[in-house]
Structures are given as structure tokens and as C-alpha cells.
Amino acid sequence: MLNFALRVKLYLINKIFNCINLIIEKMKKLCYVMALVGMLILCNEANAQTKWHWEKGTIVVDAPARPAGQQHALGLSTAPLPVVRVAFVGLGMRGPGAVERWTHINGVRIVALCDYERERAERCNGYLKKANMPEAEVYFGDYGYEVLCQRKDIDLVYIATDWVHHVPVAKCALENGKHVAIEVPSAMDLKDCWELIDLSEQKRLHCMLLENCCYDDFELNSLNMAQQGVFGDVLRVQGAYIHNLSDFWGSYWKNWRLEYNRTHRGDVYATHGLGPVAQVLDIHRGDRMKTLVAMDTKAATGPELVKQLTGKDCTEEEFRNGDHTTTLIRTEKGKVIEIQHDVMNPQPYNRLYQLTGTKGFANKYPIQGYALDAGQMKSSGVAPQVDNLSSHSFMKKADMDALVEKYQSPILKKYGAEAKVVGGHGGMDFVMDARLVYCLQNGLPLDIDVYDLAEWCCLAELGALSMDNNCAPVAVPDFTRGHAYDQKGYRHAYASEEQEAETAAIAKAYTMTLKTKGVKAAEAELQKQLKLQAKKHKK
Ligand SMILES: NC(=O)c1ccc[n+]([C@@H]2O[C@H](COP(=O)([O-])OP(=O)(O)OC[C@H]3O[C@@H](n4cnc5c(N)ncnc54)[C@H](O)[C@@H]3O)[C@@H](O)[C@H]2O)c1
After folding, report:
1. Cβ-proximal residues to 301 (8 Å cutoff; 6+ apart), any chain
2. How far is it, in rounded angstroms, from Cα 184 to Cα 64?
3. Cα separation values, 118 from 122, 169, 200, 421, Å
4. CATH 3.10.20.600: does it fit domain 84-210?
5. Residue with CA nearest ligand 1 atom 28
């Protein structure tokens, strides 16, 4: 009898536990659904935040006026930083390479390393150790970067997190008085763009988009040619990010990249294609992107990837980003830019990079070449190998080599050889980092400013607006708010030879002492060098 009562009791307890477990599971599911609904509402709200209206068949988005008393940041230069004290935030697949590259640059101190995952940040101290540099302080967790940004001894925060964290980290750094350099695409929507512009303008701090493709050999040399008129008036340009990411999808932290593509339409990764060609067209330095139209294919591979990676079904309608997105942009001066994005389908890597000018033509993918006729070649200062050189086909290698030699970018002359040794996408990552440090050390405007950042990133939200409205034209806002014609042409900034040599000597002495005697001795050496410099300039 007792046994029976005990069994009944146990049965009831078991039932109650099962019920509790069931309730917990149901609650968990409910929380998950509520979180998802919340995210969707936030997503819609974020889109709803950009107010827009029709103007003669064109979508026009509202642009916030520049707050009273705030100045534009075009050509912004800040006090020279003989030593750049840097912190890295986001050390997944991309970030560690940057840490390693910076150990090769003189006049740099890596102060802090931060990742959500503690172990990822700690691991990067290995690069510093290898370079005989003192270890950096490690920060981790969701908000480690907030503590990092409070430090007084950091000049620059270099951000390589997932896309959703770019702007929160950048805003925190700018608000705490630090320059920022943000991986591509730095801003994900128009709200992000305006917030970064306002902070850079208010704080008088740099906010650079780390567009490494602006620093590849072909792009830098062709930019130099375009600036010197080799192609005549460049009328039409193309750029792209066509890269089948099938080897990478499974490796992104918490699957952020696929999830972002699932929930967002438009060219969400436009800057590799747009950055280098926008520089050729002097965008916001004499011309302006005026209207865009976007069109995408249906999402075919995207939904399949969701199934593969998460096991969940995903329909074509549930995946916002079309497999292949094309954006066409017309500038105020009548030029056309075509940008493509496809990270889904099997095809050779391609950034297009094509310039069509009134006197010549440049093309990088899949065939690297130039087409000029004999007359244009001669007036560009290069004797053609054959007098009947025509622009109907790419010129022969010997002619191309001669053209490239004459127009080699000064940036490649300075950093090209070292970049091939240090590496990073064939060296372009190192050239980008070295130029950033050079400009900061010499107090020069950076090559890529916060307006470039906004112009190159705005294709995502503006393209979505276009496509969600039957591919309607959308007016591109003037992010400079009335100053797109102040600067006459895009140019890289350089210090005088004398200043450059002085800065480089101080940077070298600092790094040598840092590597042999540590931080205290390096800081003492820096003070000694700065005193000597001041004395020299007084004479
Ligand atoms: N320019 C290029 O050629 C190039 C190439 C690859 C990636 N990228 C860009 O680099 C960025 C990173 O890409 P990835 O491939 O390294 O992605 P990833 O997923 O490998 O790394 C992202 C990292 O961000 C960290 N993170 C997330 N939240 C954080 C927080 N609150 N604080 C600190 N760290 C946080 C994650 O822990 C992870 O380690 C992306 O913006 C991507 O577009 C650029």
C-alpha cells in the first residue's frame, strides 16, 4: 500500500517536473519569437526612420541639416601624432592580420586588443611578442570596447568587428576623443552615415573607412594616370564585389554575415567596387553622385545557405538580399558608375574596375590592360612600340609596362616593395595601413574621409529603397551638405620632404627603443627627439 502511495507520489512529482520543463521550453520559444519580432520591429523602425517623399518620379530622402555652429570636416587635419597609439577591436578572421601588419610600421604602439571572445584578443598578443613589442592590454565581452575607449593613452581605434558592431564601437571611440578607422562597409544605413559625419565634424576627429582596394597596384597607378589626363575625361566606370563566399559562410562569428544578407536588401558591400572608381571621378571634390537605380536578381542561393547553416527552412521571400545586385549611379557632371555585388554564386573573383574615358580605357578584371591609341600614348609621354597602336584592343605588355613605369603611383614607389613582403591581400592592406599612419604622423588629411565613407556605404539603404519601389530612381543625399565642389579634384596629401624625413626618423627611433628597451625608454626617447626637433625649428 505504502509502495503504491510512494509510486503515485513519484509519478505526480515526475509529471510536475515535466510540466515545468514544458513551460520553460515554451517560455524559451516565446522569448525567442519575441526577440525575433522585436528585431523585425527594430529593423522596420530603422528603415522607417529614413523619411522620404516623391519628387517628380524620384525618391528623395530627408537629410538632416548641419547643426548650428558645426563646421564641415572636408580636408580635416589634426595635430601630428609622432607616435600613433592604437587599439584594435574585432579580432576574428580579418582583425589579427591588421595587428600583425602594424608591428611592421615605425612609430606605432599597440596599446589594446579587444574581441568579444577573450581568447581571440589574447592570441593577438603573439604577434607583438614575435615583433619584440610589449604586450597589449586585453579587453573582451560585449562591452569590453567601452572600457577600452575610456583610456587616455589611445589615439586611434581600428575596428574590424561584424557589421552590426562597427558603428556602436566607432561612436563610443569618437565620443571619447579617438580617431577611428572602420573596416568595410563601415556604416550600414543612412542613420549610421549621418551619425558618423556629425561626430567627426563635432569632435574634429578622423573617421576613415578602411577601403584596402583603393591601394592595389592597378587601381593606384590607374588613378594616377586618370588624374594626369591619360584617359581624357573619364565618363563611365565600373566596380564590383563578386566573390563566392562558399568557403567562408560557416566561419563568421555567430553567422552574422548571412543573417545580415537575409534581413537586408541592397548592395551591402559596395565599397570595394565603388571606392577606387569614386576617387577617379573626384566624388565630392568636384562632382557628386546624384541619382541611383538598383536592380537585383531573386535570392536563389541565399535561402539554400540558410538551410545548410541553420537547418531552418527559408523561402525566397524571407531572404531580402538578391543573389546579384546591380546599382547604377549618375553623377551631377553626367558620368555613370555601375556597381555589382554577388557573394553567392560560383564565379571567378572579380572587382571589375573599369574606366572608360574620351581618350583611353583601363580594365582590371578578368583581363588587366589599357587601351590607348598611338597619339594618346605619345601625348601621355610614352613612345609606343608600334606607330599604329590602336585603342581597339589592349596594348601589348611592353607598352603597358612603359605606361605603368611612367605613371607609377608615388604611394607604390614608397611602400610597394615592403608591402609585397609584409602582405595582406597581395600588399594592398599594408599600403593602406602605412598611408594611414603616415597621414596621422604628419598631421595630414586622410586619403578617405567620413564623406567618402557615407557615399560608398549609402548604396545599401538607397538601393533597397529603389528596389522596394520597383527600381525607382533615388536621389543621393549630399553628405557634405553644400561643400561637394569646395575641393578641386581628389588628391593624396603629402608632407614636405624635410618634414617627412624628420617624422620618419622620430618614428624609427621610437620603435627601435620600444623593441629593445620597452615602453618607458621609448617614451623617454620620444621626448628627447621632440625636444631636439623643437630646438632645430627655433633656430
Ligand atoms: N577589407 C577587406 O578586404 C575585408 C576582408 C574581410 C573582412 N572584412 C571586414 O572585416 C570585418 C570583420 O570580418 P571577419 O571576416 O573578421 O568576421 P569574423 O566574424 O571572423 O570576426 C568578427 C569579430 O568581431 C567580434 N565581435 C563581435 N562583437 C564584438 C564586440 N562587441 N566587441 C569586440 N569584438 C566583437 C567577434 O567576436 C569576431 O571575432 C567585417 O566588417 C568585414 O566586412 C574586410
Report:
1. 323, 344, 345
2. 24
3. 6, 17, 30, 30
4. no
5. 116
Give residue 386's pLDDT: 85
Pocket, ligand 1, Cβ cutoff 6 A: 89-95, 114-117, 120, 142, 144-145, 160-163, 165, 183-184, 212, 252-253, 425
Answer whether 187's CB lies under 8 Å from 378's CB. no
* Res. 45: pLDDT tops 50: no
d(CA 225, CA 369): 13
Grid cell digits, residue 349: 573573383
In contact, 458 and 194? CB cutoff 8 Å = no
Neighbours of 310 (CB within 10 A): 13
What are the cell numbers at 516? 629593445
Point out the ligand 1 atom lying closest to the alpha carbon of residue 248: 15
Q: Which three cell numbers stand for residue 454?
A: 557615407
Cell of 148: 577600452
Side by side, the strands of the sheet bearing 108-115 are 137-140, 108-115, 84-89, 156-159, 179-182, 207-209
- Region 129-148: mean pLDDT is 98
Strand order in the sheet with 369-371: 52-55, 58-61, 474-475, 289-296, 325-331, 336-342, 234-242, 354-357, 361-363, 369-371
- Gap between the Cα atoms of 299 and 317, Å rounded: 8
Distance CA 158, CA 100 (A): 13
Q: Which atom of ligand 1 is nearest to the CA of 143?
A: 31
180 phi, psi to nearest 5 deg: -130, 145
**Best substitution site from 93, 215, 260 to test ligand 1's pocket, by max atoms within 8 Å of Cβ?**
93
Homologous superfamily of the 214-475 domain (CATH): Dihydrodipicolinate Reductase; domain 2 (3.30.360.10)
Asked if residue 466 lies in contact with residue 180, where contact means CB atoms within 8 angstroms, the answer is no
- The grid coordinates listed for 445 are 588629411
H helices of 131-230, in order, are 144-149, 163-175, 190-203, 217-227
- Residue of 99, 101, 114, 115 with the most ligand 1 atoms within 8 Å of its CB, for mutation: 115
Please report, for residues 43, 67, 187, 319, 481, the alpha-carbon distance to residue 72 in angstroms, rounded to integers and kept in the order given.
Answer: 30, 10, 19, 38, 8
Give bridge partners of residue 314 from the DSSP assignment.
Answer: none
Q: Is the pLDDT of residue 514 over 60?
A: yes
Helices 190-203 + 163-175 axis angle, to 10: 20
Amino acid at 457: C
C-alpha to C-alpha distance for 163 and 268, rounded to whole angstroms: 10
- Each residue's pLDDT tens digit, 170-190: 999 999 999 999 999 999 999
What is the number of the ligand 1 atom nearest to the C-alpha of 254? 19
Cα–Cα distance for residue pair 504/421, rounded to 1 Å: 20
pLDDT at residue 271 tops 70? yes
